[in-house]
Amino acid sequence: MTVKIIEVKTKKDLRKYIHIPEKIHVNDKNWVPPIYADEWNFYNPKKNKSFSYCDTVLLLALKDGKVAGRIMGIINHRYNEIKQEKHGRFEFLECWDDPDVAHALISHVENWAKERGMNHLVGPLGFSDKDPQGFLIEGFNHMAIIATTYNREYMVKLTAGEGYTKNVDLIDYLVNVPGDMPEIYKRIYKRVSHRADFKIVEFSSRKEIKPYIIPVLQLMNETYSEIYGFVPLDEKEMVDLAKRYLPILHPDFIKLVLIEKEPVGFVVGIPDLSTGLKKAKGRLFPFGIFKIFRAMKKSKRLNLLLGAIKPKYQGLGIDVMMGVKMLETAIQHGMTEIESHLILENNHKMNGEVIKAGGKVYKRFRIYKKAL
Fold first, then answer.
1. How many CA within 13 A on the CB side of residue 211?
2. Number of domains in the chain
3. Which CATH number characterizes residue 40's domain?
4. Considering the entire predicted model, what is its pTM?
5. Beta-carbon contacts of residue 372 (< 8 Å; ≥ 6 apart)
6. Which residue segment(s) compose the domain that 245 sits in?
7. Which of 89, 132, 185, 310 could bond to 149 as cystine, CB 3.0-4.6 Å?
8. pLDDT tens digits for 279-320?
């Protein structure tokens, strides 16, 4: 049957676009719904400033009159200007195992990007690396976690069938939490923490976190500048990002290092909320929020979200200070595993540190590319 592609223009179509993944993955025990309130905000140009410097298109595929798939096309002009590229992006590609639907969706975005002067299409990749990126290529037997992609294995086949090849892989590790702090960590921490200019800050409430939000995200801008897909945030975007995640952050799992009141290193973790999101079916109200918080309270896994150290202070032990404090907190909360979140395969230093800490490859994601 003929596949028809339509552009999402109405609230009704956007609802279909947002909710089609739950139909595709209805019987998949490892798929986790998004927080749907966040989804509506994400696609709202009045609330998501990324739309102001990106060209975008949202598409639905119809087959036999029924919604059969979706995709988003993005041209991030800010990123392309910084990197001197002409790359379009595809993101949020979802469909059943149907080559005709996949071809119709992807080729439509390819043509859309070519018409706007782009010479490559890469993806899955959103506005920045803070959005879910890459298709899962290893680890299909594990449940999805917040801010990462989840897809069936056939999506990899369908994408390759459209002529896409590897651009870069991202690796997700699991690290076992020891019952007691290893002596070697204690010794290193003692040596580093004796430096009078380093001060580690821990938090007990979200109110205490707020004054540090903008300085910490400014540090992220500085530190992440060379990371693939990263786009510097302006202050408004920093506030928006904080609003998005602050309600579910646990103050205990945020560690900050200051030098003369200046943030020079930070790490942010969150108890895994995947089982809570599944029970809540992605809805916060009327009772979903309680299911999510209950799951976080019972979780034995800590998901790391963000971390950075100011370049000129790297290699001085700040990572050890934060790592030891995070491990101590994880042990106190009865955590048994720490998930590293996505690390670029060519970030050899970070990969080495995680492996040295006992990290085992848990999942692997791939961003694809194709010349247009």
1. 8
2. 2
3. 3.40.630.30
4. 0.92
5. 88, 110, 113, 114, 118, 119, 120, 121
6. 178-335
7. 132
8. 999 999 889 999 999 999 999 999 998 899 998 888 888 888
